[in-house]
Amino acid sequence: MPEFIKEETPHNIRLTAPEIANIWSQYQSDTMAKCIYKHMLQIVEDASIRPILELSLKLAEGHISKIKDYFLQEKFPIPHGFTEADVDLSAPRLFSDEFCLSYTYIMSVNGLAGYAAALTTNMRRDIREYFVHCQNETMELFNKSLDLLLEKGIVSRPPFINPSEQYEFIESPNFIEGIFRGKRPLNCIELSNIYWDLRKVQLSKSLTMGFSQVAKSQDVKNFLWRGVELYKKHIETLEDLLNNDHLPKPKSEEAEVTNSTISPFSDRLMMHHKALLGSTSIGVYGSAIGTSQRTDLGIKYLLLFTEMAQYMKDGFDIMIKYKWAEQPPLADDRKKLSAQQ
Length: 341
Known about the structure:
This protein is mainly α.
């Protein structure tokens, strides 16, 4: 039994709805990750990248096993998630080794944010300790993937800013204006939002481009290519903000997508992955709206947020059409129960 799960944990204390939501969502993500990393391990050639992909697969498999135990203890059905039917290990590579490493790095960033959010909504001690353990494991993966990217020189560093002579206080309401009264330079908080949001959107575009060329359903192909065009627009918007202040932009992975048209993954898995990345984009856009102190930035992010929300809604409609959207556990329908004889 892992050290982070105490044997004396009182399992008669039922898991709350948020706790069920956390482990259910993690099960979907990790069964998907298991399929993706099995494919990547089939095609990776770089001996320095392979151990990081092996670690990613090991973590996903460990999480899946533990979550199954939780569902069995709570007498909840084990979710369907994703299985061997969702990956074709004989398919040729869709992405380069470099992309596999960059993908792992960005997904570890998303994972750390997700575990932090999940941790704060758990009540039972063993579940809290489990997510702390997940966070620590993912931090190791984050460090290893970033260190290797830096060692290989294939990761862009964020822009630097020069120090001022001393701290300052905002003295004029003009500080927040960004439309009619001219634009002040980006502050470090706004710059951080723009750079990292751009970094994530770049990876999403490259992944979506690869998915679009191998999808089998025409509905899915059309939806994914629409995503490529949408991400292109969002990238241009964010890059323009950096260009206006003569700041560098991060390197994209578009050249790391092969010309293969044979899919390693099921259309269902690719649509679920798009939903996961879309929800992440919506989250970071919302955070940027809340922390930007320049009016024009908030307006731009609101437009990006709205476009992404509509795109993800249309994707969910496709998943429902093909019966690909697994339903999370529901609260009891008391009205329906009261109507039963």
